[in-house]
Each structure stands twice: as structure tokens, then as C-alpha cells.
Amino acid sequence: MRIKIRKFEPVRDRYMFTDNRHPEKGVMSAILGCISVVTLGCAVFFTYRDGGQAQVKYAAAAMLAAVFSVVGIVLGIQSRFERDIFKLFPNLGIILNSLSIIFVIVILVMGLS
Questions:
Q1: How far is Cα 58 from Cα 9, in angstroms, rounded to an integer?
Q2: pLDDT digits (tens, 9 = 90+) for 64-90
Q3: Looking at the domain assignment, is residue 46 inside a domain?
Q4: Per-residue pLDDT band at 111 (split at 50, 70, 90)
């Protein structure tokens, strides 16, 4: 019986060598999206807990979240057009900020009726 010894061969296909980076504007867009979604969720929850009577501080928080969302969408779109980047954070920022803006629009439409 003969024992076969394999040589150690480096496996190069498991590693990805790239010059891509995470853009700062994309990361900031994702952070602003998270902040705005959480702020809107808290404002709606606290308004529900108060029996549907929205206080001024909840409305101010919702408007600030809407401003954050607009700034976050702009940053996300700007970072999406950069070259040699990972697209995770810009896409995540655009999605979260879009959801936040849609949420504000739905709240305003529901408040009008």
C-alpha cells in the first residue's frame, strides 16, 4: 500500500483581490436611511400609544426624518455614480430613504382624509 502525498497548492480562486471600496457618501446615505426609518417608526408608535393624538414633537421628528431622507437619497444617488465601488451601501441607502419618503407621503395622505 502506497501513501499518496499531495503538495500544498495555494488556492487563489477563494480570495477576491480588488481595488473597490465602500464610498463614504453611500455609507452616510445608509445611516441616514436607518435613522429616518427608525424615527418615523417611533413617531407612529408613540402616536398610536397616545390614542392617535400626534404631539408636535412627533410631527417635528417626522419632518426631520423626511429631510434626512431627501439628503440620504441625494447622497445615495451621487455615490452610485462613482467608479470602482461596492454598491451595497448606496443601494441600501436609496432603498431605505425611498421607503421613508413613501412612508411620510402615506402618513400625510392618511391625515388628510
A1: 61
A2: 999 999 999 999 999 999 999 999 999
A3: yes
A4: confident
